[in-house]
Structure formats: structure tokens, C-alpha cells
User: What shape does this take?
Amino acid sequence: MKKVVLFFAMLICIFGVGIGGVFVGIHLAESQATESAIIVDEIAAIQDAVEAQETIVQGFLTFLEAEVVEEDDYFIESLQILQTELTRMRHDMLTTRDELFAALENRALTMPELFILANPASVAISVETRGTNMFGQSTTRASAGSGFIISPDGYVLTNDHVLGNATQVTVLMYDGRSYPAEIIARKPEGDLALLKITSPNDFYYLEFGDSDELMVGEQVAAIGNPLGEFANSMTVGHVSALDRELTIDGVRLTLLQTDAAVNRGNSGGPLLNDHGQVIGIITAKSTGSGVEGLGFAIPSNVASEVVYAWLNPVPETPAPVIGASVTTMTDSFGQRWMLITEVHEGGGAQAAGIEVGDIIVTASGSIVSNITELREVLSNYAPGDTLRLVISRDNEQMVIDVVLGQ
Assistant: This one.
């Protein structure tokens, strides 16, 4: 009986993938000429199909896992095949969806098309913070915000202020799934934070657009979780202004201004252009009696540079040193010099013959009168390079070449 159930499960999974491929092939052949509404309906149908297939196959997986005998290699191998097919099916559908929108890349998306594209990658974020109250009792506080997925392997971008002092973060998907999130990086001074969620399947994701190309008046859309209660809500507006200088929680930011409706809970969500690209990250709104249509977003070019630095860290290069301790001294004429106070054993200064009491007059041809100026010169060198110093000793100047250490 179990073998029969397993056979039908695999048949449904593989048949679903095959039918999906045929359906996609027919659609792609007609996508250039079809009406916008039909494209939207069919892309939505693709997303529904893959979710339905996942539900069916996952049900069989659950059934078989409950029935399987641990020593039965046949069933264990079959379960693995089913899981592999499930992963491949979702990947194929994701690829198909991208191909469908590639057919539309030469024109602006309609707002329904934009929502269908961006909604699966737009997420709600639930934050839990644990602490103690005035009586010393343990308490838990919940808050919510928005975010969006920026890569198929599950990196999620949001605002730093959405996380606060989070002890637990959960990412909620458009279809009801949820994932625990790991905090990867935070930049409070830029109000950005990077999360990571994990799944055996690829995620829908959004790409960054060029915020430097924006013009006032362009149509944009925001997708987010207003009030922490209405996840995956889309509002439409325009770019109202560029390069607005605002101070938020003591941090000075240069932001885009939009009249797309945003509320508490929208923070961290994407602001999208009419090609489905993220051109801003919603971060604030002006509030107060009679205030309407004053939302602000971090430009995508600013955010993408931060994200790139997070995901592609540059190894730190050891700072070069001359192998001596120095201090600033002032002579009777008010002239400031760098005085050698200690020569380190085995360092470049000792090897070059520098002595305690020597005065550094110039480094690499530049007069250095304080630590900052010396560090500026050293910043152009690496350990192992040779630095030419002019020093004064007993009222005589001499040139000394020092091999820098680290």
C-alpha cells in the first residue's frame, strides 16, 4: 500500500512539473502579443500552481515519513527523490516567472503587473524583544515592520530601527509561510539592516534600480505592512522630491520624498519604479494633524552600496608602522615636531638606525608635525614598503629609509 501511495505521489509531482513546462512554453510563445490583464492572470496562476504542488507533495512526504520504517532504504530514497523534485519544481516556476517578466522589460509595468512581480518578494517582519519591567518581571514586547528579499538564497533588507533591540526576528511571506531570521549586519547611522532566512528552495527576490536616474513626478509604488496588521499592501504615488536632508533619531540622512501612502509598519519596505525595481527603502513619514503624503525613503544606490560591502567584505590590510613611538613637541618658536620617544626592538626604525631623541622633519617629502599628519602619510603605504624620512639629530638633518612593519 505504501508503495502505491509513493508511486502516485511521484507521478503527481513529475506530472505537475511537466504540465507546468508545457503551459509555460505555450505562454512564452504568446507573451509578446497578449494583453496585460492576461499576463497578470497567468503569472498569478503559475504562483498558485507551484504553491498547490508544494502542498500536495508535502502532504505525501508527511504521510510517508509517518509510515516509513527507518531500515527501509527504498522508502528513504524515494522520499529524497520527492524532495528533490519539489525543489526543482519551485526553481523551474521561479525561472518561468522571471522569463515572463523579461518579455515585458521593454515597457513600463502596469500597477497590477508590478504587484504580481514584487509581492512575493515583499515581506512583513515580526520582532520580539525581551526585557524586564519595573518589578523585575520578564516581559516580551512585539513590534512589526516591512522588508524585501534581495537574493534567491534569502537575504532580506529592512530598516535598522525596525529591529530595535530584537531578541527574535521572524520573516512572514505573502503566502503565509514564515521563517526565523538571523541578523547578519546592521548600520544604525544609515538605518539599514540585513537579515538571512533559509529554505531548500529559491526565494523570489527584487533587484535594485538606479535612484540617481529618478525624476520628480515619476510614478512609484510602496509595498509593506502598515500598522503591522495589513501585510503586503500596495500604495501608489509619485516621487515628490529628491535629496531631502532629514535628521531622524539624531541621524542625518539624504532621502527621497514620495506621496505614496506609508504608515507605521511600512518601514523597511520597498519603493518600486514602474519596472519593478527597488529605487528606495521606506524609512519615515511626517506625522501630525493635517499632514498627508509625506513619506521618505533611502535611495537605492545608497542602500545597494551598503549591501554590497556587507556581502563582499574587503579583508583588512594591516596598518604599516615605522617601529617607533612618537609624540608631538613644540620648540621655543612655537614650531611643532614629531619626537621619537622609543625605538621598538626588531622594528624597521631600529634597523634603519633611528634613535630615541631624533626628530622627524618630513615623511615621504611631507612635513609632519603631529600624529594625524604622520598617519595620513602612512595610509599610502603597506607593510614592507620603504618610507623615506628626514630626521634631525644634534641639529643636523639626515635622510633615513625605513622598511615599514605591521
The chain has a mean pLDDT of 80.
